[in-house]
Amino acid sequence: MNQRILHHDTASAHHASATPSTAPATGTLRLTTAQALVRYLAAQRVRTEDGTATEPLFGGVFAIFGHGNVAGLGEALYQHRHELPTLRAHNEQAMAHSAIAYAKAHFRRRMMAVTTSIGPGATNLLTAAALAHVNRLPVLLLPGDVFVSRAPDPVLQQVEDFHDGGISANDAFRPVSRYFDRIVHPAQLLTALPRALRVLTDAALCGPVTLALPQDVQAAAWDFPADFFEPRVVGFHTPAPVAEEISAAVERLRQAKRPLIVAGGGVLYGHATDALHAFAAAHGVPVAETQAGKGALAWNDPLNTGALGVTGSPAANALAHDADCVLAIGTRLQDFTTGSNTLFTQADVIGINANAFDGLKHRALVVEADARLALAALAAELGGWHADRAWTARAHKHAADWRDTVGMLTHAPQHETVLPYDADVIGAVQRSSATSATDDIVVCAAGTLPAELHKLWRAGRPGAYHVEYGYSCMGYEIAGGLGAKLARPERDVIVMVGDGSYLMMNSEIATSVMLGAKLIIVVLDNRGYGCINRLQQACGGAPFNNMFDDCEQGPLGAPPIDFAAHARSLGAQAEHVANVAELEAALQRARAADRTYLISIDTDAARTTDDGGWWWEVAVPEVSAREGVRAARAQYEAQLAVRAQAAGDTENE
């Protein structure tokens, strides 16, 4: 892999960071807006994970050039290409997904920027911006914008608002950005860039930042203060716990006999995994993991009860249902985690979160703080407090039983006449690793696979599980795998993707080959949208418009798709396998290959893992001519009544 791209191990970059001038720069530098922006980004440093050195905060800039950014930002990026590498991509949404995944794989301590032209290039970023917003992940979006002068108005690709001349297509980024600014004069960078950096590096504010860059302003020059571009080691802001909030949480925990920890992504991003392990072990508190928090504890930790919620394990869900106190750490408590607010309605909830907006979910007692600092503060005040010993023993048994079940599910005997399903493929992938998949990173995003992976993937260390399920965005998988590989080039990145998501977005296979960022891609082909097909029928609907066989078709019918041939056309190595045994052999070839390697396998669209799971609210039509829909509506109303009863009981206690 190209180490310069990933780590900037060039002499010029190393020299610039290792030997900054001891005296602050004086005077001014006449630069264009684009040159100043790029120079500022290249100057930002961050301490390495071991704290012994510094490295660039920005790992690079993904760029697809057009008339809105090639002349201004493109020229500036060329000037600084050694300190801030520019990476060419093939799809704007995909390259933003890669940048987001890069930050996720670095636990938000390093990040990337993305630049596009105006018009479709910019609006292609909107889905990725929403994904970063929902997942609280940093990415700097730099879309080109229309002329501030309006001299050529309307310029090619300009979206005109009939009532406001100051609006462009980029205003669509406002609701999906944590910070938005339009730079209409070069001097505005002096305030906009520090604000942007603060949002990107603040645990509570973290998310996408959009700086819209009108193309004439990109090219305009101004005399910038030279010291604005001095190399700077960026700090990450994490709020310390407030004594009163810690005391209130301690009082509530001391009253609890059956506590449960819900570990969310904030545990990983807050580097709190060791603190979580120590706290759970010292106080006998079982841990359940959200999608974003999976890997916070090793899969074989005796107190790790597995996935929680709609895609959860029977162990975690049984304990959540009976818990009297839930310590929710670094989680948004979205509906898949809470079973649409039916899973732990009887429990007091304590929300530890750097962002009070998230900590207050589920009517929680909030501790607005960094996860690691909050756990340390709680442990100091709790002293020798311990959960009820019978509760801890029950958690140990449930966790051990579930680990045994996972082993059986992923090592089930295969029958030649029966198509494998996701659990069979997951087992084969994990068996293919010489290190029990400890060093692998699995990447996924949407469909059935996230549910199966959440239950069955054995994450041996933080970061081994990389599933985007906050936005559940089909098409993230391959692009996200590329970002994870750029961040962690020493580890095998396994992208597991369904045929539906693959067909939505796959062009970054070519990018991965071009950059030498090898991926192992496993395509599970069930000939359609199997997940939604099952949901459709569970809601009483007829199979319709999801599987190829149930879609409107012309005289030639649905085409047979050769995913291996397609991947080869993009520069990867690839093969199709007929069964799990062939898959295991192919995985060994893939691990030994020198480039991205795709393996496709036909899978069963109907089978899923029966163990675990919980109710998820999907509204069923109140009126329908179909008997199946009416029956599903009756079941839906019964579940609503159960939730209402539970909420009433909680309010009356």
UniProtKB/TrEMBL annotation:
Top-rank lineage group of the source organism: Bacteria
A GO MF term: hydrolase activity, acting on acid carbon-carbon bonds, in ketonic substances
CDD domains: TPP_IolD, TPP_PYR_POX_like
Thiamine pyrophosphate enzyme TPP-binding domain span: 446-600
GO biological process terms on file: inositol catabolic process; isoleucine biosynthetic process; L-valine biosynthetic process
Identification of the protein by name: 3D-(3,5/4)-trihydroxycyclohexane-1,2-dione hydrolase
GO (cellular component) term, any one: acetolactate synthase complex
InterPro entries membership: DHS-like_NAD/FAD-binding_dom, Myo_inos_IolD, THDP-binding, Thiamin_PyroP_enz_cen_dom, Thiamin_PyroP_enz_TPP-bd_dom, TPP-bd_CS, TPP_enz, TPP_enzyme_TPP-bd
Compositionally biased tracts (Low complexity): 13-26
Region annotated Disordered, chain positions: 1-27
Source organism per UniProt: Paraburkholderia phenazinium
Domain Thiamine pyrophosphate enzyme central: 246-378
PROSITE patterns attached to this UniProt entry: TPP_ENZYMES
Keywords: Hydrolase, Thiamine pyrophosphate
Domain Thiamine pyrophosphate enzyme N-terminal TPP-binding positions: 61-158
Family: Belongs to the TPP enzyme family.
Biased composition (Basic and acidic residues): 1-12
